[in-house]
Records
---
Amino acid sequence: MDWITLLRSLQSDFIKRLPSGCLLHCETEGQYSELTIISGQRLKALRDFCWLMAEKYKRTSPVRDVFINNLKGKLGEEVVKERLADFITEVDYEKRFGGDGKIDFTLTCDQAIGIEVKSRHGSIDRVRWSVSSEEVEKNAVVVCILIQEEVNEAQPEYHLFVAGFLPTQMIKLKTGRISFGIEQLLYGGGLFSYLEQLQSAENHHLPKQYQYHPKQQNKNQFRQTYIYAEEDLSQLHVKQGDECFQKREYEAAINHYNAALQLNPYDAEVYYKRGLARYYLVDDEKAIADYNQAIKINPKYAKAYNQLGLARYELADYEQAIEDYTQAIRINPYDAVAYRNRADARFHIGDNQGAIEDYNQAMKINPNYVDSNARSHVRNYKKVVDFFTPSIEISFHDEVADKKPGNARSDLEDYEKATEDYTETIKINPNDADAYYNRGNARFDLGDRAGAIEDYTQAIKINYNYGDAYYNRGNARSCVGDKLLAIEDFQKATDLYWKEGKLAEHKDARERILELEIEESLDILNF
């Protein structure tokens, strides 16, 4: 079970217990407690401070309003101070207008990691907390506090609940504000562990679900990834573009990517996606322009270099394609695809020895890639079909010979005929895991996700350690909305790739898991 799913499960239990008052109550500083009670001298000190702030800013707002707003904030901050103790450092209120700053705490060990506290009074089913884009940008976490009593000048005691927290990486908000309810938060008991992971990161070297990337222009601020907001039209256009791309409606996909780039002209991934759509429309020059723009924004974008090489290869610019593939390999030395593509380009300029070395390296990284999964240059593979077809006529029952026409036809995107070829192979040998796997690939490309899942499942039954079959079944399950099952498949693929030393594939599978975990969490957030 992933960390988000676990914290959401605990949050659901907490929400059910909240009305009954059956809550964890610990008065020890530095220990977690769902309930905190503030009264007596402690409350008096908070009130005295808030009256001073009200007097200080009485010219800008009514004194009582300033007092109430400050007291709400200070009550919430007092809860977080008690629970996290020396782990955090308070930001000086005197330095902030009205006491409502954009950062309330920082980690004691790293002042670049901010924590914002939001306090609200209201019924559990209606209360909402909100954050601004600036607060999202400056903080790693938003902690939400629910105040049971209405805040006023005379209330003698307050019961406060840690309603939950939300990593700002799960919020996409470039302008304005966004609000959320208690059911959309993560359980507060996980806050310390989450911050502890950030503390131990050192330069933020964490898995994606914990990562924060400093902006070049301000290292004390954060740029979040895998985050969401209803008003983010850019991401909506990207999603629609991706859907069109999957349907091979490339012109429509380009229109959506154009709209996304008008709203956010600095998104390298969207340039990359638009480049892919243009590549499939055989508009190689414009595809090259998009890949170059993606690389300009993100110089370490290995996939963009690889695709740039493919587009130049199609224009017979083999020398430049080799340079692009080489750059992709510099960024990721375990990219079998880049080695395979560079081998093709080297072959075309007569560098046979270099081509052989690259083919060997590609097979060393991924033994299955060169034989059955190479689809780099789909417009140039007809000769492969012509070459292998006679082998069927000579020995129809030669399993290896019979699989190769199917592979070649897949490379030509003749998936229906490829499916027939693999079916013939399976008739000859029902225990051929590779044939089921390859037929699954062909069915997937035909849009038959259910059929593909059946074939990958059969391949796994025959060969339980078939990492690529788990990976591709994960992709198919993801396409039909079975995200949890897809995550299980990618996890199994990750384990197998690691054992086999396939580092590039292992990394790729891990990234797919993290993407799906975030998607799953966003589905649950349902802003």
---
Amino acid sequence: MLFSLYVKNFALIQELRVEFSPGLTIITGETGAGKSILIGALNLVLGDRASSDLVRSGTSKAVIEAVLKEVICEKIVRLLNDANIEIAPELILRREISSNGQSRCFINDTPCTAALLKKAGEELIDLHGQHEHQLLLHADTHETMLDDYALTAGDVMAYQTYRATLQGLLQQVHALKQEAASLQGKKEILDLQLTELNGVELKSDEAGCIEEEIIILENAETLYTLSSTLNDLLYESEHSLYSGITAALHTLEKLAAIDKRFDIHLQESRTATSIIDELSRFTRSYASGIDFHPQRLDTLRERQLQIQRLCKKYQRTVDGLIELRNELESKSALDEKLDERLDLLEQKVMICKLELSRRAATLSAKRQEAARRLEPAIQEQLAELGIPNATFIVSMTHEAQPEGDISLDGSTFTAYSRGYDKIEFLISTNSGEKPRPLIKVASGGEISRVMLAMKSVLAESTNLPILIFDEIDTGISGRVAEAVGKSLRKLSRLHQIIAITHLPQIAAMADLHLGVKKSLQLDRTVTEVTPLDQESRLQAIASLISGEQISVSSLTLAAELVGTARN
């Protein structure tokens, strides 16, 4: 239950703490006294969008804190655990709004996001304001209401899982078909390019090797002459370098035998002799191995020109051409496997559609069974709320679609996000009239009662422990108001109910009656909320009957209403 609400520096509220009780809490007060401010504060602490305009002028921030007891359930535990928030017997939701527009949220004194605050609130409190009346007029909310009654959340989730899988598969099929069409249009060019590149048989280092070999072949005569000359200088001539250093070596050996300081130079000279000898052998071998092959040179030049033409044509280096060839080979191989991959995907699509259809049929059957129970239950509630001749129908239709993803009984249908049913509530409020959509039939007062009837019927199936009604009495009065009050009182035996009302018949049903008033304090308007005792409660109900001028008769009638409510 909602145990308390603390509000500070919020709109007309300077500071107040309101404590609630189980059962039915009624809030009354003059128009403009601040009843809706309380609802606004609750909305904010439940994660609604914040605005600095709501901060009381002259203050730095507004603070709203709601304390809830006996509300810890599996979903709340999972929500808090996922956010690393400590779980305690009480759940404390707090919102701080600064005058500069910044907002801070807390759960059990741990900072959190407004989205998390909203998720927690949605699991605990159903705050039904005037805009929810209007939501009932939109058919897209009817499906959710029926599912709440049918307890088909798990079936909806299973259906949505298969639908998401199917959509993913269909996207893959579409992409694969586009790829196949694209490749088909380029296949002739691709094959020509691949044939051309494969025919050249490129190697990554070939261009450099060809360049080096061409340079050598073009300079074969020069290389032969120079290597032969070098060999003569080193070894073959009469005064060759080898002969000179050999003679020097003999002299060094004699010197070293006398003075050891020549030993290091002797070793270096021997090394030099070995180097000259090795170089001489290399130049002799090199000169003898030089080939003069003009045909080989022509072949290399043709190969070089061929490679250069390809590089220029494709605007790539040799390595780039090799990468292109590999890419084309991959595309060619992919093209060969496209049909196989497409067949496999389409088989998966068919299997997924069959399972999706089965899930949709199961979900629809459960909804139909629930609709058969919901229709008389709503009609019974409406009769208690002063619409005795109402006919309430849950319309379920399906859209035939030749390319639909749902296949049942030889026909195909559109797969919507929550099944293949189109659900809409139809109503007739008078005998003999054909049921029509709510938006075309019901008045404001009737819509309020239809919503209350829905809440009453769904009360046993919903897990929300707290229901809050703002202006549930729109468009009603007299005997109907009394019926609405009794319905709220009955509903409060299953849930904690907090309701704002202007009608004495409803106010008389309260287990706890809170009065809202505004006054001037230090030249500023302040909203106050006070729990009413028996006497002040009768005064408040009497003011709802006769206005500011409370008469003896209105007090008597207020006492009768309270007495009747207790029976």
---
Amino acid sequence: MPRLAEGFVNELKGRIDLYDVVSPYVQLKKSGSSWVGLSPFSQEKSPSFYVHPDKGFFKCFSSGEGGDAISFIQKIENLEFTEAIEFLAQRFSIPLQYSEENGSSAKPAVSRSLKSDLYELHKLVAEWFHQRLFDEDQEAQSTRKYWLEDRGFSLETAKEFLIGYAPVDRFALGKYLNTRNFSLPVLKKSGLFREGKGKELGPAVFTGRLMIPICDKIGRICAFTARKLEQTPEWGDRKSPKYVNSPETPIFEKGNLLFNLHLANKEISEESEFLLVEGQLDAIRCWDMGFRTVVAPQGTAFKDSQALLLYRSKPKGVVCLLDGDNAGQKAALSYVSIFLKSGLDARFAELPEGSDPDQILIEGGKGAMQRIIDQARPMIEYVIRQKLPDLSTASPKQKETTCQWFFSSLAEIDSRIALEGYLEQLSRLLGVPIDALKSDFLKFRRNRTPAYRKNAPEKENQSDESDRLTIVEEDLLFLLLHDDRLASPLANTLDMSWVDTRPVSGRILAKILSETHAEGTHLTRAQIEDLLEDDEERRTYHRLAIQEMDQKETGLSLRLARQCVNVLFLRSLKQREDFVFSQLKGADNDSDTLKKLSQELRSIRKQRSQAPLLEFTN
């Protein structure tokens, strides 16, 4: 795979402004030299998310997250490091720079990700399928007839959603891709082909079907839904299913995607609601008819991870359009639990039994759909009506059972304000005293707490010492990152064998000091970041770099660094002493060996008062 050129990552970060990276996700307000907003990673009412464009760092105090532009995109878009680089380069129109294949750089460049190759492949395949839709053969003509006449969509809509056609010939796609520069492992992991013999590529998964590309939340094609047509080959004795979806791959997880979210996100605001429908063609019809915030799950049950995707867009809420049959009602109840836990307000609209949004819009137009949306009920009211159709005759026990159903979801809510609001709604709609309802809820929450946690002290009552426990390498790395004057003295004073490189902070410290010793001067932030090799090292570095250091006391960093060096020095002596003791046990009656080991012990003990003194260089 091609590798990004050395230094490109730092060049990329130098050419983008962190404010521009974050502002599409967080509404930021100026606060001194920084910007502040509500956390995109957790629910909060008071802003605790800070962006420091001049330093290139962000810090979220409610979730503990922090880092630079790349780590922000990694977290918010759920991307790997190389994917986040590619995402930022595309967003800010910065050409990716790749190293020469046979370059002799001493430092490894960043590999182009497998996922990047798979996204490129899916884009190319989607375009090929789309071209096949407009061929002049009988298969393409039949497919266009289905799209235009049977489904009532336009060719403009087909172009907008890159609708395509997979030919009946199951080897046609493979033949086309043989002319393109994709490796066999990438093709085999794409989910587009069946298992082949040995190193051969198997036949295509999709044949004789209408192809609907599925995009991730930032608009990259990652999979397909394929609709059965008249010419679709049957599966032996079994009938071919109406819909076939791509299998899960490194770039496609059904539970982490919502169809059309990449387009709906551009239309959503704090004053508008997402429209959740069940199928992709329903979503396309809604979009076509002006309902531009429509999304759909990928043919599976709605999940917490999908609700989180919606929550991050900060909508007013979600309107769910579900079938009015038993299956639709059952699905609605599972959705309510997810919405409550995620912090999303939702309303539920029941469709006439046997109909779907596509049919309603075709027969009744936009007005018919809008009337159904306007009649959608808030989720608390919807559940109560489902469980207690005739509330006037409901017994106290039935009301208690309904409350208990809500309690399991309400107990997962972090926001005290949201919890109070839902309990008040429940109290009002069921006609039960709020004090009694709160009392029962608190009892429920106590009873579901595991026994081993009931007597555990609250976090805020625990000693702060547990939060302060660090290793000396981390303390020294923190000081080094906040005082450049320490770099050269430490590199020339510290014996690298004293540094424990098993913890992440130790590895980073050793790299910085070794490079500083070789260069003869302290490293810039960009040079340090270029040394970091994985996400764990980058997280540790950003966490320590973001933390503030109290510089009020003159000479504080030097004094603390001296203490750290002394600890490392004494620890190394202790390790040597322990080793000598282990040899003494095996020396038995060998007088010469015993004498040498005893002398070494005395030498070690004399050195305890001879720790090297760290001094700033002039």
